[in-house]
Every structure is written in C-alpha cells, then in structure tokens.
C-alpha cells in the first residue's frame, strides 16, 4: 500500500471523511528523526496494506496551515484517526508507541 501525500486542508478532510481508520505522519525533509522514521513508516504501511488502515504523510513545509490545524508542534508526529477524530499521537521516533497506536486503530 502506498502512503498518500496530503498537502491541503481540503485533502486532509477528504481523507478522514472517506476512510474510517487513518494513520498520518507529519514530517519535514530537513528533519533528521523524520528521515529515520520514513522507511519504517513505509514498511509499516506495506505490512498493513489489507488492515483497513489508510496511511498518509504531510510535509509540514509544503502544506500551508494544515500542521497548525493538527496542532503539530514537534517532528516527526504520528497521529491515529478513527472516524474523523484523533485517537492518539506520538511525537518523535517511538516505534513501540507507533505500533501500539496502530494495533489499537485496527481493533
């Protein structure tokens, strides 16, 4: 499964309206920890392609006011969303927490 690139508020709203379970990675190209998370997030998305979870990525430097709307204050930030509502989030590269968020989202 590929990761959807989201860059506008309208795209984000469409994403969470059309998909019940969403995992979003907020990142910046210059961010070292974001670079470490990137390949692992891609692998998690591939391993969970048939799980019913939609994976998306938001480049905070190329998405206008979307990071502010999502209250992103540190990078990387991973947010799990169910039926349009945030369920949990983690800031930084914390693979155990990201995996537990995903497990809870799949239930």
TrEMBL record:
- A single Pfam family it belongs to is Thioredoxin
- Alphabetically ordered keywords of this record: Disulfide bond
Q: Which InterPro entries match?
A: Thioredoxin (IPR005746), Thioredoxin-like_sf (IPR036249), Thioredoxin_CS (IPR017937), Thioredoxin_domain (IPR013766)
PROSITE patterns assigned: THIOREDOXIN_1, THIOREDOXIN_2
Q: Which residues form the Thioredoxin domain?
A: 1-107
Indicate the segments annotated as coiled coil, or none if absent.
none
Note the superkingdom of the native organism: Eukaryota
Q: Cross-referenced Gene3D superfamilies, in alphabetical order?
A: Glutaredoxin
Give the family, as the similarity comment puts it.
Belongs to the thioredoxin family.
- Name this protein carries in UniProt: Thioredoxin
Organism from which the protein derives = Aduncisulcus paluster
Q: Taxonomically, what lineage is the organism?
A: Eukaryota, Metamonada, Carpediemonas-like organisms, Aduncisulcus
